[in-house]
């Protein structure tokens, strides 16, 4: 059957399983020709009858058509009029039967099937229960309606999903909070600073020479030092043996082993380079393209070599700021691990080599960390659920083990993987669109901080940040911890800032009714973690452990400086120092940008517009202060005192306890007022809950007009 282009019609057939009558041809009206159909929402799907009626489907909604249209213009016009009448009737009916609570919404729009249920524009499957844990069962209780944020751009073929958990998305929300309501809202800046596909494809086809023996040894040593500092991906003894064989016999090795060495060359060149001259390519990208040839064919029976290569390529892809590619590769590596059964314990009778058994365990948990952390940065689901994992945790090598040097500190890897699990749990609980059960936002934030505090308390002594023998490993671990704490608490900070901004025309301080003490305590924990991250990153830059192209350290720097920018507007006792720290961190980030760091180039676009918005706020507030000074004859020293806000409101809740000059994030979570807060069964954050439910809004606040989402800034 073919479509008749002259009649602009389409063929309609009965569903399979029925006896089909004579095929008939009817006119089709496309939703692109009828944009008003796309405004229909909230209509319960109905089963089609056998009376010859049709259904028009729009955005998960089925609209009953009153009659079958004819081919002439009159029939089509009456058909459209009938649809419009039906739409108006359904909208009126929905308005009259509006539910009185969110629980009523769920009960009304839940279908009778046991396979899936529609909640607004989301489908909640039976396996997608509460966001707190992979193992929790689904609940019929109310859920927050978090509308997916898609961004249109003419340069791409499809709208781009922007997750609220992303640091760049939070920066956009922050700018929208402090923007002048009389002016157009700030728009999200599209990520364009990454290694382009075309350039990589060109390098894949080019002939890249194998490095000289001395150069290859140097690059592999650098790569092993930086990769093994945080993760267990490859065995050092095996890599060095393979490298020497490739040096003495250039024709040695299959494609898999040589691809692994190419990937290590790429990482080694990356971390041994301090800056990029304008005429040079990005360090290691040619080697990366060479190693990527292995992606053209996936093994039907993957081995550990396949997983190792995929993880190395995923790690390097992040440095290229190709976050989506890195996420896909980490997910592929996890699926390879599942195919191999790495997520399960293998009987010793089937694999007696203790070194290989330990490598399998550690390789799986590194894949787990990559999958969890990469997904959390994008707000995407991970590739495996915790209740599907049955493999033991990493263990310390046995004394006298042949290749014990291949396996580093097991306690570090265990702490790292547990933190990755906490990051995933936090993102799902606070930012997820799944059913959260009866838990309110404040309860979920409270639970996230309890989990993080327990993680700190369980850390071995040698991994504590205040240990005088601490090296790069604990620093990286605690920076990840700080970022998780910031993710858990920055929605609270943003709501407080929003309340503060709303009160700026008035010189009266915010009251306890507007911002309760519990909310301020949580926001202070967020700010302290950001300050601690800035201090750790600055120290790392001074001692040389902050590599110029390190993606994670660059991201932590940007995330923390955004929090300090928000803190500088809260009029607290340290707001001025936070503003200075923000400006210095921005200069730090610009140095990384000028050196060629892709992620820093992206983040500097956000920092530039953020600084411009902050300057407007500072100028506006200073103008209000000077005008008030002129009107009331205030002394110059009284000007700053007129700007009482959340920071000055802190005095209403009693003096803050004295903390050490260098407060760590762990100290911030064990600070007495926060400990008391976390011990409470229910937090007093109704000012947040009311804004969520009264406005029926997303995570941060309600409907930003779609025109502000769909254009480039």
> How much helix, percentage-wise, in residues?
40-55%
Proportion of beta-strand residues: under 5%
C-alpha geometry: globular
Compute the CA-based radius of gyration.
29 Å
Can you give the mean pLDDT? 74
- Helix-strand category: mainly alpha
- Reading the helices and strands in chain order gives EEEEHHEEEEHHHHHHHHHHHHHHHHHHHH
Please give the largest β-sheet: 2 strands, antiparallel
Q: Which oligomeric state applies?
A: single chain
Low-pLDDT ranges = 1-74, 97-133, 136-145, 629-661, 689-713
How many beta strands in the DSSP annotation? 8
Distance between the termini: 47 Å
Q: How is the largest sheet built, in terms of strand order?
A: 1-2
The DSSP helix count reads 22
Organism: Colletotrichum gloeosporioides (Anthracnose fungus)
GO molecular function: sequence-specific DNA binding; zinc ion binding
Subcellular location: Nucleus
Biased composition (Polar residues): 117-128
